């Protein structure tokens, strides 16, 4: 990260400066990643629900595949403002989405007049694009994992407003005090993001395997 863009609050997470670039302290990364893994393992072992959020083009597939592997909800397109803070509206959209999917599966959309069918199919496409990763959500998540603080600032602010615990990857231009656990990392390096997500998802999967639902 070029020096002019860095956040002074990131000083404790920086180990050196080389050729105008801040180098992240990987010991701190490992420490906070370990804390985050402990948190998600414990939450998953109690049946808690997660959302993984990452909408940059380079992480779209990574977010979806990791979320599906750990049976988490995810948002990998645009974060719709109010997705959490205006949950009643999100819930209404999800009901509409589920209804349209059911109608499509039964072939009923194709029996409608062409104009009506085309309009509903456009609605379904739009809902699938933005809500497809949270289509099974029935309430607010217990923990939100955010891949890029700058890119997903609105999502993080909604977590802060609602008091939902958050885990956030932060680069040197971020504020480490916003999320409950901030993991310093180069959020432009796909290998770094993949490694951190893999560890978090592994911890969630391990936690889920020890979850015993109440009967």
UniProtKB/TrEMBL annotation:
Gene Ontology CC terms, in alphabetical order: mitochondrial small ribosomal subunit; plastid
Family: Belongs to the universal ribosomal protein uS2 family.
Subcellular location: Plastid
One Pfam family matching this protein: Ribosomal_S2
Keyword Secreted: no
Gene Ontology biological-process entries: translation
CDD domains assigned to the protein according to its UniProt record, in alphabetical order: RPS2
Molecular function in Gene Ontology: structural constituent of ribosome
Domain of life: Eukaryota
The protein's name: Small ribosomal subunit protein uS2c
Organism expressing this protein natively: Papaver somniferum
Alphabetized UniProt keyword annotations: Plastid, Ribonucleoprotein, Ribosomal protein
PANTHER family for this protein: 30S RIBOSOMAL PROTEIN S2 PROKARYOTIC AND ORGANELLAR (PTHR12534), SMALL RIBOSOMAL SUBUNIT PROTEIN US2M (PTHR12534:SF0)
The keyword Ribosomal protein is annotated on this UniProt entry: yes
InterPro entries: Ribosomal_uS2, Ribosomal_uS2_bac/mit/plastid, Ribosomal_uS2_CS, Ribosomal_uS2_flav_dom_sf
């Amino acid at each position: 990260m070029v020096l002019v863009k860095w956040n002074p609050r990131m000083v404790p997470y920086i180990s050196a400066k080389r050729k105008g670039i801040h180098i992240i302290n990987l010991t701190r990364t490992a420490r906070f990643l370990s804390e985050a893994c402990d948190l998600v393992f414990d939450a998953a072992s109690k049946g808690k629900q997660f959302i993984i959020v990452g909408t940059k083009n380079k992480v779209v597939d990574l977010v979806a595949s990791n979320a599906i592997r750990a049976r988490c909800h995810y948002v990998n397109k645009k974060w719709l403002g109010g997705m959490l803070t205006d949950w009643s509206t999100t819930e209404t959209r999800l009901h509409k989405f589920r209804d349209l999917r059911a109608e499509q599966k039964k072939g009923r959309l194709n029996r409608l007049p062409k104009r009506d069918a085309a309009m509903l199919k456009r609605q379904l496409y739009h809902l699938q694009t933005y809500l497809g990763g949270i289509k099974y959500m029935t309430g607010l998540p217990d923990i939100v994992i955010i891949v890029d603080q700058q890119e997903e600032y609105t999502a993080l602010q909604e977590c802060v407003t609602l008091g939902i615990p958050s885990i956030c990857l932060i680069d040197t231009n971020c504020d480490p005090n916003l999320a409950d656990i901030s993991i310093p990392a180069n959020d432009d390096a796909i290998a770094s993001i993949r490694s951190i997500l893999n560890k978090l998802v592994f911890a969630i999967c391990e936690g889920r395997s020890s979850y015993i639902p109440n009967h």
